Amino acid sequence: MPPASPRQTKASSVRPLRALLPFLRPYRGRIALAGLFLLMAALSTLVLPVALKSLIDQGLVAAEPGARVMALREHFLALFGVGAALGIFSAARFYMVTWLGERVTADLRNAVYRHVVRQSPEFFETTQTGEVLSRLTTDTTLVQTVVGSSLSMGLRNTVMGIGALVMLVVTNPVVMAQVLGILVLVVLPALWFGRSVRKLSRASQDRVADSSAIAAEVLNAVPVVQSYTQEVREAERFDAATERAFATAERRTRMRSALVAFIITATFGALLWGLYQGTQAVVRGDITAGHLGQTVVYVILLVSSVAVLAEVYGDLLRAAGASERLIELLATRSTIQSPAAPRPLAAAPGGSSVRLEGVAFRYPSRPLTPALDGVSLAVEPGQTVALVGRSGAGKSTLFQLLLRFYDAQAGRIEIDGVAVTEADLGALRERIALVPQDSVIFSTSAMENIRYGRPGASDEDVVAAAQAAQADGFIRALPEGYASFLGERGVRLSGGQRQRIAVARAILKNAPLLLLDEATSALDAESEQLVQAALASAMANRTTLVIAHRLSTVQSADCIVVLDHGRVVETGRHAELMAAGGLYARLAARQFDDE
């Protein structure tokens, strides 16, 4: 079964923020320390009104002027001590939670990326690259905001709000009982608003991912876009996606603004009622002026805490949608996995053996069209076997099954006597070197691009591989030689130069099984002859499977396998197949006549 598209999971079926706990767990000590600093900062704030009450009642209301001055000094010193403690604990809290936000976000981003690069090609048939990039960047940034600041602010204001509320209830129990009854009525509508905000937050992130997917696709194909003069059309398509994202974000913002306005207004009204009752108590002589001042500060603390919590609640809801998308991505499981008890692959000093028995395969995205239909093939160690046929005959599919990018639906594939599904995935691919038709060049130097075939190779080994692939000459002619940056996707190289880099990479890997998928298709005649000679040297003591549309390049193969509509229709050497007058002979005659 193909992996589920990340958007097929309902937003209400996941508890996204709880799923972040595994990323927080390794830092329990720092979290505890941050919690301690947070608690101390909140308590320092809650002590402030008590110190203010003492200042009013004992410092300002004292009868004797001398005693009043001394009392004022003591109380102001006490207030300064409270302020200093608040500053120190707040700074320590800020550092700890910011560090946690950065660290957890980095771990989450690494985990998502590490998981995605292990997915089979089947995953990328249903998930756009831009979608994945959006989750790695935008979504993780939202999570960082929550872990690094919003969550801390929320906890701090929760402690402050609860503390202020407790102090108000203790000092004014009758009045605050009325206020609490009013506040209960505020909670229920807030929960309804919150659910709506969360759904819109998830939808907003999906729309942003849509525009990211369009940008990633078009920027990777700018030459084609410009050659067909489609710049305006693509810009309009991106504008439309951006406008859809903006419209969804606007709805989310309106809903969140209404949530904040409702909570703050309702809470402020309830607390003003309590404050009004307090002023009446002072007039009646039930409480002192200092008591009222303390009540005023606690009311201000409670209102401000509720206001901040309303903002934080919106951030949490938005981050919940982002976390949900990230966790969905992490929950996706590749259909291609190493077996629990893999069978070891025997050494293959003279090249690997390859055997296919009745292999049938259909791509998940094209379940009604067979790519391979009952293919059987035996390749002995050290042989060079060419796969030829029309486009779509199944040649590249066979390579993908050997590399176990996919698993066949029927039949058996063996390398060195071990079924590919029974071997360790890493060990299997380690003994295969691939030169794809579309050469992949990474955004790094020529030296590192070739060394990708064997990361531990020395500079001398890299240069030797480049010489064998006839790439040494043009690499040394680059401005910085082997240290030259080749640009994104190798834009500074010609097609033939990129292909020779890919050939050098495969030569450096020195695997017992070499897969060449049109390895010389982008070369001119002279370079092709040079690289063919280099490949002939590289093919020594290893098994080679070659896909070629230019049949002149495979005439010397030990065996030529002709595929048509996913089936093997002919096998033999060049002369035998030409004499048979079948499909191979017709394809060869057409090519040789054109030349």
Contiguous helical run count: 18
Instruction: Quote the average pLDDT.
Output: 77
Count of all domains: 2
Strand order of the largest sheet: 6-7-8-3-9-10
Overall outline: elongated
Q: Which topology of the largest domain does CATH recognise?
A: ABC transporter transmembrane region fold
The value of Rg in angstroms is 35 Å
CATH superfamily label of the largest domain:
ABC transporter type 1, transmembrane domain
Q: What are the low-pLDDT stretches, counting only 5+ consecutive residues below 50?
A: 1-14
Query: How would a textbook summarize the main sheet?
Result: 6 strands, mixed
Measure the end-to-end span. 46 Å
Structural class: alpha/beta
Strand content: 5-15%
Q: How much helical structure, as a percent, in the residues?
A: 55-70%
Second-tier CATH architecture of the largest domain: Up-down Bundle
**CATH class call of the largest domain:** Mainly Alpha
